[in-house]
């Protein structure tokens, strides 16, 4: 049977690097006479619409494949598109990382050399003895806005979300991405966020327990260990256990103390600190008491109070 591939491409990922990656991939696909179509995003939300369109066509067999080319935010859009439109048949996703953070690729040890990854995807999808792997994705219900959304990596409120906001709007990000130093823009934003972020009250409920954390500085939910392009914030997070992992860091001291906590986090010794709270559960209910920045997979959620219910849902991926 003939295999067909639909590529959803964010040419702006990594400040335009993804467009160069796609040119290389397209040449290979043409040379190998592989049947494919492409959709390139022009604005936020386009990838979601293209993914919805793919599902609505309702492929009748396993020879139609959806491949995402871009960063973690691009993958987030595609995931939400297929989950929002999901029929009784699960639609597997293939992902070719071409962004600046690539935490999903890091968590699942995907090859980040574009041609190598493309060849792997083709081999996986055309081998009738292989099946896609089901892994955890996060799903949250925003009770205030009555919305339901999914995330592949992380959902954050507070310090990490502010850092994402500063990074996304930094004039340095594009320049550093062109030089291959994209991660540096994130770390520069971390130090800027230190001078801006304040503490906020957080209520955490899980397994019929409730804890009130009045001095929350950072709150991150994750499907796997990594945030921010390789920061191993929860090294023991398991992306296949049908549970969501949560870390909360409080700030009860000075900026120097915060820097010390961040240093310990980078070297993986932060769990032992009294300001660090670590949880794993099938579901969390979270409420914040003041306006805060939020993000999901590096995509900004705006600034508001949060009232969330968060759990996991399995999604098939060609890994």
Automatic annotation (TrEMBL):
Coiled-coil regions listed in the entry: none
- The name of this protein is YegS/Rv2252/BmrU family lipid kinase
Asked if Kinase is a keyword of the record, the answer is yes
The family database entries (Pfam families) matched by this protein are listed as: DAGK_cat, YegS_C
Task: Give the superkingdom in one word.
Answer: Bacteria
Which keywords appear in this protein's UniProt record, sorted alphabetically? ATP-binding, Kinase, Lipid biosynthesis, Lipid metabolism, Nucleotide-binding, Phospholipid biosynthesis, Phospholipid metabolism, Transferase
Q: Which residues form the DAGKc domain?
A: 1-107
Report the cofactors. Answer: Mg(2+)
Query: What Gene Ontology terms describe what this protein does at the molecular function level?
Result: ATP binding; kinase activity
Question: Record's NCBIfam families?
Answer: YegS/Rv2252/BmrU family lipid kinase (TIGR00147)
Gene3D superfamilies the record matches: 2.60.200.40, Probable inorganic polyphosphate/atp-NAD kinase, domain 1
**According to the entry, what is the taxonomic lineage of the organism?**
Bacteria, Bacillati, Bacillota, Bacilli, Lactobacillales
Enumerate the Gene Ontology biological process terms. phospholipid biosynthetic process
Family label: Belongs to the diacylglycerol/lipid kinase family.
């Amino acid at each position: 049977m003939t295999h067909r591939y639909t590529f959803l491409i964010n040419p702006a990922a990594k400040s335009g690097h993804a467009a160069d990656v796609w040119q290389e991939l397209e040449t290979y696909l043409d040379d190998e006479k592989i049947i494919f179509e492409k959709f390139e995003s022009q604005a936020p939300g386009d990838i979601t619409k293209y993914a919805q369109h793919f599902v609505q066509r309702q492929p009748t067999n396993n020879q139609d494949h959806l491949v995402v080319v871009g960063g973690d935010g691009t993958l987030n859009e595609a995931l939400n598109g297929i989950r929002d439109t999901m029929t009784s048949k699960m639609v597997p996703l293939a992902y070719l990382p071409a962004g600046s953070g690539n935490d999903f690729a890091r968590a699942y040890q995907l090859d980040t050399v574009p041609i190598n990854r493309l060849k792997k995807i083709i081999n996986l999808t055309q081998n009738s003895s292989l099946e896609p792997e089901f892994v955890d994705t996060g799903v949250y219900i925003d009770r205030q806005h009555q919305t339901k959304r999914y995330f592949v990596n992380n959902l954050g409120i507070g310090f990490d979300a502010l850092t994402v906001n500063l990074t996304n709007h930094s004039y340095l990000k594009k320049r550093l991405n062109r030089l291959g130093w994209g991660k540096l823009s994130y770390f520069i934003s971390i130090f800027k966020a230190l001078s801006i972020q304040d503490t906020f009250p957080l209520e955490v409920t899980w397994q019929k327990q409730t804890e009130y954390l009045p001095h929350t500085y950072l709150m991150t939910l994750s499907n796997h260990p990594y945030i921010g392009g390789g920061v191993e914030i929860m090294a023991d997070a398991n992306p296949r256990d049908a549970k969501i992992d949560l870390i909360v860091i409080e700030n009860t001291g000075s900026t120097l103390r915060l820097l010390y906590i961040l240093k310990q986090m980078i070297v993986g010794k932060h769990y032992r600190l009294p300001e660090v709270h670590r949880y794993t559960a099938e579901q969390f209910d979270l409420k914040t008491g003041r306006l805060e920045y939020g993000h999901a997979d590096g995509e900004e959620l705006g600034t508001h109070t949060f009232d969330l219910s968060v759990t996991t849902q399995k999604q098939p991926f060609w890994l």
